Amino acid sequence: MIKLENIFECKPNEQVYQVVRRHSAVLIAKLICAGVLLVIPFFFLFFLTQWKTAGLIIFAVIEAIGLVLAIRAFIAWDGTVLILTTHRVCQVHQQGLWKRRVVDTPFVFIDGVRSERAGLGDALFGTGTLHIQTTGSGVPVIANWMATPEKLQSTIHDLREKRAWQVDMNTSDEAGPGSAGQEHDVELEVTRERVARMLVDMDKETLKTVEQLLHNTKKGEYAP
Q1: C-alpha torsion angle, residues 107, 182, 6, 145 (rounded to 10)
Q2: Can you tell me the distance from the alpha carbon of 72 to that of 74, in angstroms, rounded to the nearest whole number?
Q3: Contact 218, 212 (CB under 8 A)
Q4: What is the full per-residue pLDDT of the chain (224 aa) written as tens digits?
Q5: Residue 25 in 3-state DSSP?
Q6: Cα–Cα distance between 212 and 206 in angstroms, integer?
Q7: CB atoms within 10 A of CB 103
Q8: pTM of the model
């Protein structure tokens, strides 16, 4: 099973709300294909044994391929998750045995969320596709084979609204009984989200002005 701590780390005052995997039908279909490949050689075992060593090698190779496909299917299904937290949406896409793609989208950069059901598979299993549009040049999140996608859409909307209210009111982002370093990290995170929300609503000319100002400040050329 996938261990979230190996690929995901919560920020100060952030909590994981829900971890969602694709419908189990995705895994079952691939396991059936792998199972067929594992079973078929036994029907030809008598003929393969007639070929002696060559036949046994062919048998072993086919069985090994079927086993690898089954393991690969489970790892890909188990490792492909949509993580909803109190601050963001994180999509982890396990591509095969060794490759993994992670898209991390804070709520402030989400422009819209929609769900759709299309095709025979969605009709049979009650699944659908979740589309998360992002602002600017951000990578959109597309999660297919999701059970009850409308419920996920509503959940993300509620989490976004709650997070926006928290940042505005700065209530739940209090560090509480912790170190000064923890308080500074929380305050910095809130400030970054506020600035990011402001930047999203700015026009092109204003963004250029802000960019130049930040550039000059970094170089030490700006004096307040």
Answers
A1: -20
A2: 6
A3: no
A4: 667 777 778 887 889 999 999 999 999 999 999 999 999 999 988 888 888 889 899 999 999 999 999 999 999 999 999 999 999 999 999 887 788 888 888 888 888 899 999 888 888 898 999 999 887 656 788 999 998 899 999 999 999 888 887 776 664 444 444 444 444 454 556 566 666 666 666 667 776 777 777 767 765 554 44
A5: helix
A6: 10
A7: 18
A8: 0.72
